[in-house]
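Worked example 3 (structure in, sequence out).
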């Protein structure tokens, strides 16, 4: 068992009472999980403040308490220390408690509005193909080498992140690639260690609201914090905010992009040229030539220019791991990401794919990309989540009405709302356009409709659910995986009914 004094090593703190040389059995920040001899960290949340139960957790057996504001603890044998920020302290304490596992891994942190998830899987695929054992932390799941854990947050709370790192080390992982959200950076979930590589994909207005970031400047600032916490920063120099992201950076900088010059005022270190769109074997993809610090031809079965950026990002990272050109090419050709422009083979006449696009910005980008492949028809099926902004519904309806030839409006996660009320809001948006649409509230029926009515040359997109395997209705999550639905539909459909 580590001593409290050891766990606090390197932190600025003030001892209020008690002995800090005592042994600690566990680190806890949930008052319901207090055990005898534990260190309890008071976290101030949106709905509950751990400081309010300091005396209660002490009476329940906590040996020590870390707080960022005054607390009353009547037992003077319980150690109490104060710090400037308990979330930051928890990250550092957790790292120490688990034996600083990040120091035993090569750590890759990827931040940005779009591309984080896809890029993490591309990197994992390339490095594993080269023989590395790779852990992953992200929006879809955490993979430690010992187990796979479905994700609740893109970046887990710091205690669990350090616990997962420790599991990776125990399982023999050499590398971890993880998504680093702006919320995670703002709330110090990824503090307590230095990333070997910090990656910036791009930034657009997103996650701005009362429970996230107050404005775009705050969102941008939080993203920039990664480059004060990494050794090598690898950034998309084509993004117009790249210089702002680098303000205050402490890392060595490399850039990638599609042009000779970029927004850092310098030539990109890695460039993609001779871009081509691929449409072959019932799949959409891209090819390009990498130039600069790597010289090679690349092909990947992910559509659109943003897929070129994702692949280029993965190349910029993996070159630091001495992966062969042959290994990179082979891994990119077979890489898949669940729910991210995921193509499913149901017909050799049209293309069907699933994507997580669940707001107007993401849907617009996706539909514009698919338009570039000149489909016979672009068919978009989607719904919107309940208990979320109505503006999102209007905007998504309007985007699909403008860009798709046919929109099929269905249900997503209605949560506590009535599905037909949500659909009516989407219709309000789509009726601002001349776009053709139908409403089919049952999502499985909607999927069956788009499959059975598919025409030769169509591109059909099932948007909004992506990797999710549930539907939330009236506070209950029911199993619902679009891939399984498609399998059931195909089993019950005469092949002759599908072109």
């Amino acid at each position: 068992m580590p001593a409290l004094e050891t766990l606090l090593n390197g932190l600025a703190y003030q001892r209020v009472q008690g002995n800090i040389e005592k042994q600690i059995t566990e680190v806890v920040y949930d008052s319901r999980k207090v055990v005898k001899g534990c260190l309890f960290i008071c976290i101030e949340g949106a709905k509950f403040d751990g400081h309010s139960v300091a005396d209660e957790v002490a009476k329940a057996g906590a040996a020590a308490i870390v707080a960022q504001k005054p607390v009353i603890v009547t037992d003077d044998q319980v150690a109490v220390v104060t710090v400037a920020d308990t979330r930051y302290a928890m990250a550092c304490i957790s790292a120490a408690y688990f034996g600083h596992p990040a120091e035993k891994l090569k750590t890759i942190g990827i931040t940005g509005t779009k591309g984080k998830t896809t890029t993490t899987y591309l990197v994992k695929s390339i490095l594993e193909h080269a023989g590395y054992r790779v852990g992953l932390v992200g929006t879809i799941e955490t993979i430690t080498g010992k187990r796979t854990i479905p994700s609740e947050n893109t970046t887990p709370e710091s205690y669990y992140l350090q616990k997962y790192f420790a599991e990776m080390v125990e399982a023999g992982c050499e590398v971890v690639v993880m998504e680093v959200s702006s919320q995670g950076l703002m709330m110090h979930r990824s503090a307590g260690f230095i990333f070997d590589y910090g990656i910036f994909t791009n930034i657009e207005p997103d996650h701005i609201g009362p429970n996230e970031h107050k404005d775009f400047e705050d969102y941008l600032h939080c993203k920039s914090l990664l480059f004060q916490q990494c050794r090598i920063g690898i950034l998309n120099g084509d993004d117009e905010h790249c210089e702002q992201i680098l303000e205050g950076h402490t890392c060595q900088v490399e850039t990638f992009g599609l042009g000779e010059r970029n927004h850092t005022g310098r030539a990109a270190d890695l460039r993609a040229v001779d871009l081509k769109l691929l449409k072959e074997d019932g799949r959409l993809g891209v090819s390009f030539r990498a130039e600069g610090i790597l010289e090679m031809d690349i092909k990947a079965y992910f559509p659109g220019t943003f897929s070129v950026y994702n692949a280029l990002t993965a190349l910029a990272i993996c070159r630091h791991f001495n992966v062969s050109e042959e290994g990179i090419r082979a891994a990119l050709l077979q890489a898949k990401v669940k729910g991210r422009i995921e193509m499913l083979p149901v017909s050799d006449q049209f293309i069907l794919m699933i994507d997580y696009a669940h707001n107007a910005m993401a849907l617009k980008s996706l539909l514009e990309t698919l338009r570039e492949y000149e489909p016979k028809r672009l068919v978009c099926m989607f719904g919107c989540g309940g208990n979320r902004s109505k503006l999102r519904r209007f905007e998504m309806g309007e985007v699909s009405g403008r860009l798709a030839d046919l929109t099929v409006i269905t249900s997503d996660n209605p949560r506590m709302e009535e599905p037909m009320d949500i659909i009516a809001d989407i219709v309000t948006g789509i009726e601002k356009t001349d776009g053709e649409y139908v409403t089919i509230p049952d999502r499985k029926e909607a999927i069956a409709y788009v499959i059975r009515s598919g025409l030769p040359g169509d591109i059909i997109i099932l948007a909004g659910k992506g990797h999710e395997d549930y539907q939330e209705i009236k506070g209950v999550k029911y199993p619902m995986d679009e891939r399984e639905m498609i399998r059931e539909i195909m089993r019950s459909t005469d092949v002759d009914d599908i072109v």
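Notes: The CA atoms of residues 119 and 313 lie 7 Å apart. The two ends are 65 Å apart (CA to CA).
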